[in-house]
Amino acid sequence: MTRFLFLSAILFAASGYSQTNCDVLKKENEALQSTGKVLLSENEYLKKVLDINKPILETENENSTFKITKVTGNKTGKNIEITFLVEAKDENKKMTIEDISFVDIEGIEYKIDLFKSSKTFPQLAKDIPLKLTFSFKDIQGEPMFIKIFRFKTTSQPEINSFEKIRSGLEFKDLKVNWN
């Protein structure tokens, strides 16, 4: 009988202690939920970044990846901007981009506006994308598509500056989003 009374007293004390600890558990639960909201907002941010850098067209050349992410036209400024990411896959390298132009659906060729564009001599680090934006001015009308966007590249590794690789790149049928 004493064992029964002793066990009853222990259970009664334990249940009493658990009731007083309930408020502390509620506070800890609220703190964890607010931390979860912070993590959720960070995840949403990362998803938006991935959507921003989602390529429209992508190609690989000279162990470098070229991803066009955005083609926008400005009605008031009568210009078109092409934004893309360049990423070196094999090693750090210096690149020269030249003869940059595009042809619209009507066959009109436009040359780059160097004053409003990114530098055409990017330094690429291995596996780190670099964002470049090329601007073209004096656009006639509002073409909905760019028939061909082309440029020439010359790449040279930082280790061996005498080794140069030349190539030409073309992207076809790019849709222009006008503002």
Task: Characterise this structure.
It contains 2 helices and 10 strands. The mean pLDDT is 84. Strands 1, 2, 3, 7 and 10 form a 5-stranded mixed sheet that branches. Strands 4, 5, 6, 8 and 9 form a 5-stranded antiparallel sheet that branches. It is α+β, with helices and mostly antiparallel strands and 179 residues long. It is elongated and about 100 Å long.
Helix content: 25-40%
The fraction of residues in strands falls at: 35-45%
Helix and strand string, N-terminal first? Answer: HHEEEEEEEEEE
Main structural class: alpha+beta
Give a quick account of the main beta sheet: strands, pairing sense, barrel closure.
5 strands, mixed
Low-confidence stretches: none
Mean of pLDDT: 84
Radius of gyration over all CA atoms, rounded? 30 Å
Number of strands: 10
Quaternary status: single chain
Number of H/I helices: 2
Separation of the first and last Cα atoms: 87 Å
3D shape = elongated
